[in-house]
User: What shape does this take?
Amino acid sequence: MATFKVVSRTAKEYNTVYIRIIHKSASEYIRTELTVHKSGIDKKKEVKDFFIISQCSTRIKDYVLKLNTINSEPMTIREIKNFLVEKNDGVSFTDYARKFIGELSSESRHKAVERYKTALNSLKKHYKRENIMFSEITSNDLRDWIKSLSKTARAKAQYPICIKKIFDEGCNQYNDYDRNIIRITNQPFRAVKIPQSDPPKKRFADVELVRKIFEIEPQNSREELAADVCKMVIYLAGMNLIDLYNIEKQEFKNGKFCYNRTKEETQRKDKAYFEIKVPGEILPLIEKYNGKKHLFSFRDNYSNNENFRRAVTIGLKSICRRAEVTEISYYWLRHTWATVARNKCGFSEADVAFGLNHASAHKATEFYIEKDFSPVDVMNEKVLKYIFNF
Assistant: This one.
């Protein structure tokens, strides 16, 4: 167990008072707001002033009581000091959540950042304050919060999953299970059932609708961008916008795009690697949007993928209005490609999943088989023939 002494670290006329912590022959100091005259310290700079000692004794008693709530024996002196100077109510969940989200941002995981931010804001709104401690998050509060989200389609599942992830990572950060140093003792999610999201609405765009969209002549730069990007999406087997935004020049080789799917690159053992032959109709667009460092100039013109996505969305909405068709998003084209491949061209769901670069359902088996992406090119050719009648 650590021991404590009331000391000064200087011997001037007036000196700041510290509480010295001693643990395993090492020392750390906790500064107080108190000041002691030089007449109140001895040659070892230990405080002998009765009033100051009585003031500090109460704090030392609180420190001892706090240390008795954990196993401090295996802790370092710095760990003990940090533990003691924390607020009495423990570790701040919201402070850690902001740190967690900041790390996601540094990895350019913009969609994840927005998802976690929204979930955290929802939890803070439920608690009606900005700062929430880990110890304050209880099973009952979580159940009430989830109940308040019950009328949402996805948030009722997505938000609690995000908060649980932050909570679990916080436990890994602050608890040392090997040394039995447990600073976050509550486990509220053990008694909470997270509901499932509602099934998503069908986002399949009818083939005739797709044809009408591509028949519209763009009237401005936003519409032109949207038309060109949507053409890339449908002609490249539903390629994601973020992958078009990120693709490097060296990833276009031998007439193919050879890249890692951004959304899942860090989550899959194969790094979500994918290859697809670039149809001839797309080659002029590669030249048209030739980028300085990346394959496309999208990164030169838009500071991040979200701004690029927003520009495409605005342009596509405008096209849909002029074509007098149901308003769709670019992502519907990915669903259209998949639906046509399965229902009109007769490919299996496994083939379609492979063509969309989804994670394999046969995780063990896939590493026994060398991947051949040529079936994707065959599938893509048949889908495009069906959609565009060529």
